[in-house]
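Give me a protein, keeping tokens residue-aligned:
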Amino acid sequence: MTDTLSPRSSRPRTDYPGPRPAAAPLSTVRGAALYIGALLGPGLLLLPGLAAAEAGPASVLAWAGLLVLSALFALVFAALGRAFPSGSGVTGYVTAGLGDRAGRAAGWMFLAGVVTGAPVVCLIGAGYVTALTGGGQLARAGDAALLLLVVLMLAACGLRASSAAQLLLVGLLVAVVGAAVALSPRAARAANWMPFAPHGWLAVGHAAATLMLSFVGWEAVAPLTIRFADPSRQLARVIAIALAVTSLLYLGLAVATIAVLGRGAGTLVPLAALLRSAVGPAGIPAAAAVAVVLTLGTTNAYINGAAAMAGALLAPRPDRAGAAGPGSPVKAGPGRPARTLLAAIAACGLVLIALYGLGLVSPAALVMVPTALFLAVYLGCMAAATRVLRGRPRWAALPAAACVLVMLGYCGWALAGPAAVAAAHVARAAAAGRRRSGRRSWPCRPG
């Protein structure tokens, strides 16, 4: 799960008549900032601790491997964005390579990832609040539910975070993580690296599957490739800058978490623990403030971006009977997709948070649900890329698809999520086909 969807939330609308206003060309610096913003988010506040708990110091190998995979994703999605310049994102990419049904299934899986990912983000922020205020698992669940309801109310009121605000939030995260990493060497201990793989080498794969949620985001900014004045020259620089910055932050935080915290690296609030070691007790409230701001801002961006995709998926298609055509509004009103999405997030989110509060599921298990859904979407995109792209992007998509398949194998029971969404989509498509066949078979009405 990408951790922020700010570029997607600012897509130009496609549902009004007349020409769209041309967006200003992106500079290399702002383009790089948007790419970095799509990759970084509240996941960094939790996932290093989960990965360390699963694989120990060897979790740094999972971070390193995923950075290589991230470079492949960057190359593929940049090529897809240039080849299919539209705002439909993953739906359009998978449709181009695998057909309309597969494309719409990918879109629904992406939406399901957002629905199940929003409560996870709120639990991340709530963990830092309870680290400050005190309380156990039930208190953290209560704080998470409150954060989720606040986000949903903001979205229901139509409040949208601008791209400038999203970049400011990402800048805040970079500053705090950078400070924690820079100040960590004085508290580092060489003994914390032994044993290096306490849970065996296969645990590195489990850690990689967990960390994948921090590497979702390249698909969000792929449509921005057409906004560069000189894509062939700017895009390579933008990707290089984004990869360099995210690599430094990811690896720096992973190494600092192990070196400073040692066996305590499996905490649910690793950044708070690092800041406490670096600056003393003041680090805990600082981390809590950053966590709350990031949770509210990025989850709001998730929901706004997902609402646009929900509207596209629920809109009537040209092949359906009736007068509706491309771009026709949804019959139940323009707010129906957003209201449906908010209701789904509220229902699913409160259930997942309650299960965590009652001790029935762990944070790692909750993270795997949206991770499996996003991995299934990425597999579809990589498979589509092997069919519609040529040259280096196509060759990059092949190993990327293989790596995604391996990580899906580590998702275990969480694979039920993509399977359920796919089955629901097939059933929905079959029901729509029967309705269309029934309409065609009716005899003419008597006059």
Residues 1-22, 319-334 have pLDDT under 50 and may be disordered. DSSP finds 17 helices and no strands in the chain. Residues 78 and 100 are 21 Å apart (CA to CA). The two ends are 57 Å apart (CA to CA).
